[in-house]
Amino acid sequence: MASKDGPIIVAKDLTISYELHRERKKLTALQDINLEVQPGEFVVLVGPSGCGKTSFINAISGLVPKETGSVKVRDEEVTGPGPDRAMVFQDYALLPWRTVESNVRMPFEFQDLGVSEAEKNKRVQECLELVDLNGFEKSFPYELSGGMKQRVGIARALITHPDILLADEPFAAIDAMTREAMQGEMERIVMETGQTCVFITHSIDEAILLGDRVVVISYRPGKVKEIVDINFPRPRMSNSEVKTSGEYAQIRDHIWKLVKDEASQTNRGE
Amino acid sequence: MANKGQQNAQVFDTDDPDRIQDIGWTAREVWRRSRGFVVTSINIMTFFILWEIVTIYGNINPLFLPKASDMFVELYVGLTTRAPEGAVFSGSILDHFLHSFSNLMFGLSIAILIGVPGGLLMGGNKYIEAILSPYVWALASLPRIALVPLFILFLGFTTTMQVTIIVISAVFPIMINAWAGVKTTEKSLLAAARVFGANRRQLYVKVVLPYTLPFIISGIQQGIGRGLIGVVIAELFGGSNGLGYLVQRSADTFNTAMNFAVLLLLIVMSLSLINFTRWLEAYVAPWRSANHL
User: Fold this and answer.
1) What is the reported pLDDT for A266?
2) Rounded average pLDDT over B213-225
3) What's the count of helices (H) and strands (E) in chain B, helices before strands?
4) Which of A5, A44, A182, A184 makes the best surface tag, with the fewest CB within 10 Å?
5) Cα(B46)–Cα(B95) distance, rounded to whole angstroms?
6) A233 in the same domain as A172
7) In Å, how far is B153's CA from the nearest CA of chain A?
8) What is the tens place of the pLDDT at every residue in A60-73?
9) What is the DSSP track for A78-101?
């Protein structure tokens, strides 16, 4: 799968801005971002609302064009979406008229990846099993709870065996208890599949528990403020010693201060 | 279900199919589900019975309010007889109903054939939208009844004129709904489809079109209402056919019972068609009604 030599994602001097149509002005969402992600690494982005985290992930997925700089995946410039990258969305983004199975199979339908029918069926079963949804193949998304919907979203993202999993606040709309369970599943899935993962969250706990590195992004324009290495052994979610350790509290406090500085700027209404 | 993974992932999984059990039917539950229908039936029957009593004992001029039973007799006779071969005017409700109904269906079909592709094109292409939208809004906001004299001038007192009025009445709600459906397609669904490799054609066929389908159906629902107004107006103004004509004719000949019978038929027809489209909408887009629960 992944070539173990060199980073899988390289962002170099990446700047993304949006035009505000009404005022003929330009908003710089991200400025001069430099970041390298190693294969199999779990990178979590944190930062205040509107700091451009989503723009960064969208630039990797190819949904949003960059202004200057470059994003390379496996040494190739990103020009659009590709089957090597998959995404999990905050609002699940499941097609409501399709069953769970049909939603999970969707990526195969849109692109010809040279996978045989038998292999597709096998993968659907594998992915549904991975997220513990076997038995719900024929259910429709509106019949499922929020946590289950997002598990469908994760299964859909894994079906093509992408090298990179992008997740944009996937658990933000899910209640606290289900959320904790989902974080555990996420950690387990990424450990099992060896996926590279770029993950956005507003929760510092989620960032520390899931991430190998936590990237703190500053508020407008979004820049990399600091990168914090997290070295707790995995699995962390089921290990109660992680959350109660002094080191955890220290890291948490450190990241909290970084984010708080930035968040206070948001409140000043800039 | 207790396979690999975290135990806490399973604890909150209340949707486990193994936990669903059969609770059977109770009298209370049967009543809870059927009471709407029962109450409505009794309500309507009481209404007609009271109407009958009032007209029998109230000494009311049947020109103003005929007996309910007379209305039903007119309706029954009118629906079970046809005009004799070669008659100039028909007094049969069935003849006029068939004329109006087939016109409505024909006009609606044309309105759908124009409105759906038109609305989809307007939603999908900003140039087509910019060019067509002033005309669509102009014609949609014009009270359609004001066009009737013009169509009579163009087409005479013909079925073509009547159908044209139905089409012009029904086409705009259908077109505008289809247009709105395309424009309001959820951005995250489009983003997801693009991330997973959809090209432009697939975006339209696999995402935008299914998303827009319930909008189109509710457009057709509005189109039926407008089309029915179009039917009656076209027949009131010009022609010697259809339920609109019969409404006029029965009033002119002081046959109030017949008039009421035709009005009742129009109500039943309109409600049936609208309920059919509601059912259709719930059938093709169950996630929409599920949100209201």
Assistant:
1) 61
2) 92
3) 13, 0
4) A5
5) 31
6) yes
7) 47
8) 888 888 878 888 88
9) --S--TTEEEE-TT----TTS-HH
Identify from A61, A87, A97 which residue to disrupt to test chain B contact, counting B C-beta atoms within 10 A and taking the largest count. Answer: A97
Q: Does B290 touch chain A (CB under 8 A)?
A: yes
Q: Which of A85, A93, A237 sits opposite B192 (nearest CB)?
A: A93
ipTM: 0.85
Each residue of A81-132: pLDDT tens digit?
888 899 999 889 999 999 999 999 999 888 888 888 888 888 888 888 888 8
Domain that holds residue A148: 94-161
Query: Which candidate in B13, B195, B281, B291 is best for mutational testing of the A interface (most A CBs within 10 A)?
Result: B195
Domain identity same for A227 and A264: yes
Tokens of B180: 């709105």
Same domain? A195 vs A255: yes
Is A187 found in the same domain as A149?
Answer: no
Alpha-carbon distance of B224 to B250, in angstroms, equals 25
The pair of structure tokens assigned to B96 is 């006029």
Domain B68-290 has CATH 3.60.20.10: no
> Residue ranges per domain, chain B?
68-290
Say whether A81 and B195 touch across the interface (CB within 8 A).
yes
Of A111, A136, A161, at which residue does a domain stop?
A161
- Chain B hits for A186, Cβ within 8 Å: none
User: Average pLDDT of B144-167?
Assistant: 90
Q: Grade residue A206 by pLDDT with cuts at 50, 70 and 90.
A: confident
Per the CB < 8 Å rule, is A95 touching B285?
A: no
Instruction: Determine the Cα–Cα distance for residues B194 and A149; give it in Å rounded to an integer.
Output: 19
pTM: 0.80
| Confidence band for B291, pLDDT divided at 50, 70 and 90 | low
Q: Is the same domain home to A167 and A269?
A: yes
Residues of A in contact with B199 (CB under 8 A): 110
Please name every residue paired with A216 in a beta bridge, in sequence order, or none if there are none: A46, A226
Determine whether the interchain pair A184/B207 forms a contact, defined as Cβ–Cβ distance below 8 Å.
Answer: no
Domain count, chain A: 2
Residue A18 falls within a domain, yes or no? no
Listed in order, strand segments (DSSP E) in chain A are 9-20, 25-37, 42-46, 68-73, 76-77, 85-88, 164-168, 196-200, 213-217, 224-229
Other Cβ atoms less than 10 A from the Cβ of B203: the count is: 18
Summarize pLDDT for B84-130 with one digit per residue, the tens.
777 767 778 999 999 999 999 999 999 999 999 999 999 999 999 99
The residue among A223, A209, A156 whose CA lies nearest residue A180 is A209
Measured CA to CA, the distance from residue A65 to residue B260 in angstroms comes to: 66
* A151 within a domain of the structure (yes/no): yes
